[in-house]
Amino acid sequence: MRVIIVGGGYGGLKALETLSKCEEDLEVILIDQHTYHYFQTESYNFVASKIPLDKTFIYLPTFVASFKRNFEFICDEAVSVVDKRLICKKGEYEFDYLIVATGSVTRFLTGFEEKGEFSLGIKSLRAALKVKQFFEKELFDRLEKERANKNFNIVVIGGGLSGVEVAAEMRDYFNRYARTNALSCGSVHIKLLSKYILENQPEKIRRKVEKRLEKLGVEIVRNFVNKVEDHTATLDNGEVVEFDFAIFTGGIEPSPFIKRLSFDKDKRGFLIVDEYLRVKGKDNIFAVGDAAVLRDANGKFVPQTAQSAEISGVLAAKNIIASVRGEKLMKADIKMKGMAIALGGRYALVVTPFGFNIYGVSGWIIKKAVEQFYKCPLQLRARKGYKLLKWSGEKQGLKMRKGVEVVFEYQK
């Protein structure tokens, strides 16, 4: 029985881990166009130079190698699905069950080019690296006297969780340099452009977040952005905001793979799934995370976050195991377990499911603990897989050397 997981994001890895606990003889293949899993929830840390590049991802080949022998990683880009075959750019792969976990991509506004030199998203590791390098270069340039007091305007477009965290951490990033008296960063301006800040959160939380942003020195511009062109953003009231660099965090859209599929989708283009997370009309194809329209037991829409991706990934894998065993499938009841918002420096806001919130350093400690709780097991598995691959390679190398020796002896 072969199960293919497309996408090595939060949902895909949780599905893989869950399938590894199955006692039945399953062949599991993880396919992703990248060889790494990006810790996207820590992009704000990476952009603000709080963590190095090697702490922002795990290497998928070594991670998958830590599981059973019938688990395999293939680096390939999924194109389409035909019957029980996944069509990729490099090959075709037959499956009995398929889990679509390709996530989402940044939805850019008109005129906002993803590959632009001065305007980027941070949803991908490549884009986050470019943003980080750009700001580090700007700081270096300010070591030169003639650049020290030059104005530099940064806009963050989007007032959701990512926009708030990036704006807060970037402002704190420049403030730290200013406090050392090594650089003059007072002329670096950061504006957060959004009609609403954390729109779906209670007013008490929004006020607390806005107060923290203002204390850091982030200017909040309460308007939607209609268009971006060159170095200007046009707001819905007609005002034009000039910038030197723009970071877009204002929305997502389906991955190119999802767009090419002919399955039923909602008006935004994401896959519609039933109460068991099966793609509508397909008993053997499941969709999880950002790729799917997720709902709780009451039919209420669940936000597309890393947390909901993990929960749905586990459930989809359990339902596949149940299907293999001929057991009853579990209905989705995805419940969020709170939220942690990084707000610059050692300050965070933790929204608990118990009706109270935690602010400041205590919130920051909890957020760091949650991040490590997720990362450490993955990193340990990757190290285990690395040792297994290394041992296997050394063993094969020894056989090859012996073979060469035998050939030379025979020739003599």
Structural features, described:
The protein has nine helices and 25 strands. The chain folds into two domains: 2-105 and 253-337, FAD/NAD(P)-binding domain (3-Layer(bba) Sandwich), CATH 3.50.50; 119-248, FAD/NAD(P)-binding domain (3-Layer(bba) Sandwich), CATH 3.50.50. Helix 1 (10-19) runs parallel beside helix 8 and helix 5 (161-179) runs parallel beside helix 6. It has helices at 10-19, 43-47, 60-65, 125-141, 161-179, 203-216, 256-260, 306-325, 360-411; strands spanning 2-6, 27-32, 36-38, 57-59, 71-75, 78-82, 85-88, 92-94, 97-100, 104-106, 119-121, 152-157, 188-193, 219-221, 225-229, 232-235, 240-242, 245-248, 252-254, 271-272, 285-287, 292-293, 339-342, 348-351, 357-358. It is globular and about 65 Å long. A hairpin with a 2-residue loop joins strand 6 and strand 7. With 412 residues, the protein is of the alpha/beta class. Mean pLDDT is 85; it is low at 396-412. The strands form eight sheets. A five-stranded parallel beta sheet has the order 5-2-1-9-21. 36% of the residues lie in helices and 23% in strands.
Quickly describe the structure.
The protein folds into two domains: 2-105 and 253-337, FAD/NAD(P)-binding domain, CATH 3.50.50; 119-248, FAD/NAD(P)-binding domain (3-Layer(bba) Sandwich), CATH 3.50.50.
Secondary-structure blueprint of this entry?
Elements: E1 2-6, H1 10-19, E2 27-32, E3 36-38, H2 43-47, E4 57-59, H3 60-65, E5 71-75, E6 78-82, E7 85-88, E8 92-94, E9 97-100, E10 104-106, E11 119-121, H4 125-141, E12 152-157, H5 161-179, E13 188-193, H6 203-216, E14 219-221, E15 225-229, E16 232-235, E17 240-242, E18 245-248, E19 252-254, H7 256-260, E20 271-272, E21 285-287, E22 292-293, H8 306-325, E23 339-342, E24 348-351, E25 357-358, H9 360-411
Parallel strand pairs: 1-2, 1-9, 2-5, 9-21, 11-18, 12-13, 12-18, 13-14, 20-22
Antiparallel strand pairs: 3-4, 6-7, 7-8, 10-19, 15-16, 16-17, 23-24, 24-25
Helix pairs in contact: 1-8, 5-6
